[in-house]
Design a protein that fits this description.
Helix content is 26%, strand content 29%.
Length: 70
């Protein structure tokens, strides 16, 4: 059920991404806020450093799918 997904355990290989409702939406990685362009660059760099990292996305339910999908 997508309204209340099961929580995944947080581990050392996980990075938390938070997308908050705002105009424009606010993107956070490790509690640091990024613009959409900066955020994409930060994700690319994260993947290059460690492709095995699990990405955990938490997004405000008021956001549209396209606001969360980078």
């Amino acid at each position: 059920q997508s309204d209340n997904p099961a929580k995944k355990p947080e581990g050392p290989k996980q990075k938390l991404i938070v997308v908050q409702y705002a105009t424009p939406p606010a993107y956070y990685l490790d509690s640091k806020q990024y613009s959409k362009a900066e955020f994409q660059t930060a994700l690319d760099e994260l993947y290059q450093r460690n492709p095995a990292t699990d990405i955990v996305i938490k997004a405000d339910q008021r956001l549209k799918y396209g606001d969360v999908k980078v």
